[in-house]
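Example: Helix-turn-helix transcriptional regulator.
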Amino acid sequence: MDLGLAIKSIRKQKGLKQNQFAELCEITPSYLSQIENNNKEPNLSILKIISNNLGTPLPILFFLSLDNDDINPEKKEAFKMIAPSIKSLVNQFFAV
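Written out as structure tokens, the predicted fold is:
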């Protein structure tokens, strides 16, 4: 799961600089950077603030952060086939 990459990607799609977004979320730019680089795991309350400010529901943020390692081995092939299309659709609907 790459939650930091999902947050960073949506933030950039929305045209928000890291400093701007950190201010919106009332966290330091350093803490946001650590979250986006997966060096810190934010608690649920911070994740809710981040998802609200991204305009992306938290379950969608979790879905967008899924990677191949998170999927059951028997379902990896199906995930590889459908994930890009589903993630693209979800991104278009929620992220921008």
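The chain has a mean pLDDT of 92.
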